[in-house]
Specification:
The chain has 332 residues and is α/β, with parallel strands linked by helices. It folds into 2 domains: 43-286, P-loop containing nucleotide triphosphate hydrolases (Rossmann fold); 291-330, no CATH class. Helix content is 33%, strand content 20%. Helix 4 (101-107) links the parallel strand 4 and strand 5. The radius of gyration is 25 Å and the shape is globular.
Length: 332
């Protein structure tokens, strides 16, 4: 009987697959003990994005993704808190595949002499047009990804912002392509402890409906692989009015969801184009309202003005900026 047991044991051992084991096991209590010794990640963008996380920011074309992305890079590189959360200074690489050098300069200056002052920790990177982008073995997208890794290591980067994801994958709507892309991004983040934010476009959508994860490039494939996902929505309140909404957070509770979006207005101040955050409110306040309701708000604003209220006081009543109130009053 003992020989049978021994033979059975040897037989099981021989049947084990002869492959490398890339998994590691510990008891749940051991994992808790290990986790307790890891320093809590610092916030990068309030409760929305933290150290070590890979995330996506998306919106319709031309609605301010790059403006917000540069604003985040500027604040993170200087250690300036956003949304009231303290943070540290980090080396930020901003991969700009959207703006030309001149367009970037014009956006962050009043003229060729009044230039905004960024931190030395903020490194902007664009495609070197003097380099040959053709390779017999690698696709253009693979060359870009390889170059991003080289730049990250060269600059000892702690945060990467990639604007935009189109340059990493010719089509990010297909699940298998999204999976291959995200494997590379996640490996870069985990292997070198780098926080990464990807900027993405959305296809045309109904701007008067609440934004969902399904709006991301027509597919949820990308969002399945990231830690966080948030978006910028446009508003019926004005051409420069926006809102920021959280759609996914794997590690923390969602704070800025449908009932508590961040109200913003795009404005330029001291040569810096930015999102001015003006409080919080429901997403539905930014979606299509009936003409009657719009007219009613404008008339109410005029009544408050007639009663002696300032534009700033009226703006607080409606959750918009004084500039928007000024535009409303011109319509009456």
């Amino acid at each position: 009987m003992e020989n049978k047991k021994a033979n059975s044991k040897n037989s099981q051992g021989n049947d084990m697959p002869n492959k490398r084991n890339i998994l590691t096991d510990k008891t749940a209590n051991e994992w808790l003990e290990i986790g307790s010794r890891i320093i809590d990640p610092k916030p990068l963008f309030g409760n929305i994005w933290h150290q070590g996380e890979v995330g996506i920011l998306f919106s319709n074309t031309g609605k301010g993704k790059s403006i917000l992305a540069v604003q985040l890079a500027d604040a993170i590189s200087k250690g300036n808190p956003i949304l009231g959360e303290n943070t540290d200074k980090y080396i930020v690489l901003y991969f700009d595949f959207e703006l030309s050098t001149k367009a970037f300069q014009k956006r962050y200056s009043k003229s060729n002499t009044e230039l905004y002052s960024f931190s030395p920790n903020f490194v902007r990177i664009e495609i070197d047009r003097g380099e040959n982008s053709e390779d017999e073995k690698l696709s253009f997208e693979q060359l870009i990804i390889n170059s991003i890794t080289i730049q990250a290591l060269k600059n000892n980067a702690e945060v990467l912002i990639i604007d935009n994801i189109t340059y990493l994958a010719a089509s990010n709507e297909k699940s298998h392509e999204a999976l291959e892309l995200m494997k590379i991004i996640l490996k870069l983040s985990r292997e070198y402890s780098i926080s990464i934010l990807l900027i993405a476009h959305t296809p045309k959508r109904d701007i008067y409906s609440p934004i969902q994860l399904e709006d991301l490039a027509g597919s949820k494939a990308l969002s399945n692989f990231v830690d966080i996902c948030f978006c910028i929505g446009e508003s019926v309140k004005g051409d420069n009015i926006r809102y920021i909404k959280q759609l996914k957070n794997r590690n923390y509770p969602i704070e800025y969801g449908q009932e508590n979006v961040i109200n913003c207005e795009i404005e330029k101040e001291n040569s810096f184009l930015k999102f001015n955050m003006m409080g919080f409110g429901g997403e539905k306040e930014h979606l299509q309202a009936s003409k009657t309701n719009e007219d009613k708000r404008i008339l109410e604003a005029q009544s408050l003005k007639d009663a002696g209220k300032t534009n700033t006081e009226i703006a607080k009543t409606f959750g918009v900026s004084p500039r928007t109130i000024g535009r409303w009053l011109k319509l009456t």
